[in-house]
Amino acid sequence: MTQIFDFDSVIDRKNWDSVKWSKYADRDVLPFWVADMDFATPYFIIDAVRERLEHPILGYTSAPQDLEDAFVAWIARQFNWAVDPEWVIPITAVVPGLNLSVRSVGSEGDQCLIPVPVYPPFLEVPVQSHRRGVYSSLVLENDMWQMNFEDIANKAKNCSSLLFCNPKNPTGRVFNESELRKLGSICAETETLLISDEIHWGLVLEPACEHIPIASLASEIANNSITLISHTKTYNVAGLLSAIAVIPNPTLRQRFEVLVERTMPSGSPLSYAAGIAAYNDTSSWVQELTAYLRLNRDLVLTTIDSLSTVEAFRIEGTHLCWLDGRGMGVPDVAAHLERHGLGLSDGTEFGTPGFVRMNFAAPRKLLRQGLDRLVVAAMSSA
């Protein structure tokens, strides 16, 4: 396959108000923390946004029918999932969708079950939604973070909702069909609403793995679920927020729609244009991107395997590496790495002190520089 897209060029983002790069604007710290990519957004997304800018008014905009049509056709092609257009609700972003999903079932004071570690906005949902968070720790087995189904089943009995993330941020798991069916069955049996964040659907790195929308597996799972999905991670347009909620259950969907109408602003016309272009994509972008990320992942894991004080684990998907830095023997792993010029996400924010998350979606030259700094930090106690 002839490569079309350029992932090697280092693009200067320092003076463009990038959240990732602005954090360390006055320090010699390379940022590999927040989960956007240091690659150029694909040309066909840029072209679609430019075309929309030909119209001189960027006012309040309803979700275009073209967006819903493109999404339904895309999800059928991508995952062989026949989604009824009535199930589709465009929303501004996945994270607000998590909050509205939890509020769509039960009442204030209910318990919300969350497998951890998980990315920080998940942990804020119970408080923001006036629920009580209950947590089930993943278990490390065979170099992979696994769900503890016995623990989940026991806790789900007393919870009105469960927040699920697949592919998993930050551990990089892509859960298989057996695992998904088991989780879906537990939630159905305990009448616990399964809320599935599948924003990293396109970043499956392990050839033997595939992303399976959990609601596509069985009607009893679908009718007890809300799937939140977006093109923004795979196509690197995190700044153009847009997402889709798929809700097959009509009663649940009606509750969700009421909350959307009351609390969620309309989407950006530029975000809609980018979404339509992404769902209509027939290029080699996803294949080339995942091939490049796969090599980056291998470089990260090979480097960490050479260190005795830092441990990494199998990464099946996402562009994120979950690192155990407790072997360095420092009180604050993230701060220690920053002192050595490397900015990673602090695992404390994910519910797991002593760990850090590294985003390896960067040109390889830049990634090597970051890994060099990691090696120095891992061998230093200062």
Key phrases:
382 residues; alpha/beta; Aspartate Aminotransferase, domain 1; Aspartate Aminotransferase, domain 2; 7-stranded mixed beta sheet; 13 helices; 14 strands
Content-based structural category: alpha/beta
The CATH class of the largest domain, by name, is Alpha Beta
Number of helices: 13
* Whole-number count of domains: 2
The CATH architecture of the largest domain can be given as 3-Layer(aba) Sandwich
Averaging pLDDT over every residue, what do you get? 97
Q: What kind of oligomer do you see?
A: single chain
Helix content: 25-40%
Q: Span between N and C termini?
A: 47 Å
How much of the residues is beta strand, in percent?
15-25%
Number of strands: 14
Secondary structure blueprint with pairings:
Blueprint: H1 19-22, E1 30-31, H2 43-52, H3 65-79, E2 88-91, H4 94-103, E3 111-116, H5 120-128, E4 132-137, E5 139-141, E6 144-146, H6 149-156, E7 159-165, H7 177-190, E8 193-197, H8 219-222, E9 225-229, E10 243-246, H9 250-263, H10 269-279, H11 285-305, E11 320-324, H12 333-339, E12 342-343, E13 345-346, E14 355-359, H13 364-378
Parallel strand pairs: 1-12, 3-4, 3-7, 7-8, 8-9
Antiparallel strand pairs: 2-10, 5-6, 9-10, 11-14, 13-14
Helix pairs in contact: 2-10, 3-10, 4-5, 6-7, 11-13
